[in-house]
Amino acid sequence: MNKSDHPEPNIFVIFGGTGDLSWRKLMPALFDLSQDQNLPKQYAIIVVGRKAISIEQLISHLHQGVKKFSRQEQIKPADWKEFADHITYFKGDYEKSQTYTSLGKECEKLEKEWKVKARHIFYMATPPSMFGVIPKFISEAGLNKDRENVQIVVEKPIGYDLDSARKLNTELAENYDESQIFRIDHYLGKETVQNILAFRFANPIFEPIWNRHYIEYVTITAAESVGVEDRGGYYDHAGALRDMVQNHLLQLLCLVAMEPMVSFEADEIRNKKVDILHSIPPITKEQVPHSVVRGQYGPGKIDGKKVVGYREEEGVAPDSQTETFVALKVLVDNWRWQGVPFYLRTGKCLGDHLSEIQIQFRSVPHQSFPAESTLNWQSSRLIIAIQPKEGITLKIQAKNPGPKMHLRTVDMAFNYQDTFKTKSPEAYETLLWDIINKDATLFMRADQVEAAWQIVMPILDLWSAADFGDFPNYAAGTWGPEDANKILAQGQTWS
Ligand code: BG6
Asked: Nearest C-alpha to atom 6 of ligand 1 is from which residue?
């Protein structure tokens, strides 16, 4: 990481900073950045929350989170103290203008001490209902006068559907320039996800075959072995399509399918991705039954332990119709990808925790080996493993040792851990670093978010109108409903 050796002084204001996101992700990432000297020399972290807690309680709570989730093997007390000295707590009501005037004074005080104008990064780590509210108050309190030096960071979900996403984007645009708004999709901060661009566009050998002539189909899987954990209340109103497909999975698809960028400018890359979203024809209501499968987990076993079904989870309605699994087939209607299906699937309480993209190449045009040589034949397949074992594997045919010409599949593999001998930075570390450096490449632009909603809306509309009544339809610990295989063409497989 060396975008700028001396980033400008920053004041991070984290609304909802006493919550889970801050505990698990933001503070560990900021701490890791501090340990690698990747924070500005002068910085402050103002945690804004509604809880009545002391700074000592907050620091001790955050310390636990950093110990648990930071990338550092050991956290020296002196390093923690040095970092923690930058944190202050500010109790305030998000819907009272006084909160913002006082915050403004706090920022002014810091700038006076530092004798320099700082950049203000306002991070919404709050429930989504506050995403439109807080930025408006910030602006009304005059904290957005110097637009060059103010950024706002909005977490997902960006809207609940297309209309609400448009509404939120419009509200934000009333007070902020698009260049000030950083909408997070944390998948884009993952090392392996960023590496898709390097793999495709830094190695000229793949580009000539990266199209419908050589690629038969693509699968994108984001499987989780955990259930909804303590987020039942949120999840039951979201479901897998909103929670994972509208954002993370469609973004992965964009990176696989986009045209080469002309430069590494944020908008150039985002334009190329939006082109892909615009090339995906919305799945019509008539197509939904053949192209989309939804599921909900019932009780089952994961890692030998019994787990309850989704409807028994806390915060979930006992007759919930929310999907915890979705598989769908989309097409990309452009010159490069005409007729190549992209299959996406994601789910909770599945048989394993893994996210990966598989590119299935077409078979050879003419089979010249005798039939007995090719009993175990599989066409070449490329696997981009995003997590937990980050790497890229090309499965190819090779001759089995021995006098006979027998072919079998072997791996040409690149594994992050073995190659780089270091832990990859967490997605949030990369994203925070980019925010500090005002690099919006990995963040969602308003039109991207809306284009992605447009793709999933017909499915959501159909599902909200029909009571499917067949849930639960897969046992926890399996790979989802059997029907997920039916959307694949004959001979095709998810992995
Ligand atoms: C979040 C979803 O965006 O991504 C969660 O809201 C999901 O439901 C999570 O568990 C998965 O992210 P990761 O990085 O653990 O694969």
From this structure: 243
Q: Which residues pair with 306 in a beta bridge?
A: 301
Specify the pLDDT at position 145. 94
Catalytic residue among 186, 213, 248, 278: 248
| Three-class DSSP category at 415 | strand
In the residue annotation, 366 being an active-site residue is answered as: no
Q: Which atom of ligand 1 is nearest to the CA of 355?
A: 16
Residue to mutate (ligand 1; options 24, 154, 191, 244; most atoms within 8 A of CB): 244
Cα distance between residue 415 and residue 424, in whole Å: 12
DSSP bridge partners of 350: 478
Q: What confidence tens digit (pLDDT) does each residue in 220-257 have?
A: 999 999 999 989 999 999 999 999 999 999 999 999 99
Shortest-distance Cα residue to atom 5 of ligand 1: 243
**Cβ neighbours of 175 (radius 10 Å):** 18
Distance 427 CA to ligand 1 centre (A): 12
Segment 395-404 shows an average pLDDT of 94
Give dist(CA 62, CA 22) in Å, integer.
8
3 state DSSP class of 115: coil
What's the pLDDT score for residue 6?
64
Residue ranges of the alpha helices (H) in 148-209? 162-175, 191-201
Q: Around Cβ 439, how many Cβ atoms within 10 Å?
A: 17
**Residue 222 CA to ligand 1 centre (angstroms):** 9
pTM of the model: 0.95
412 Cα: distance to centroid of ligand 1 (angstroms): 29
- Would you say 359 and 256 are in contact if contact means Cβ atoms under 8 Å apart? yes
Report the alpha-carbon angle 11-190-39, nearest 5.
Answer: 25
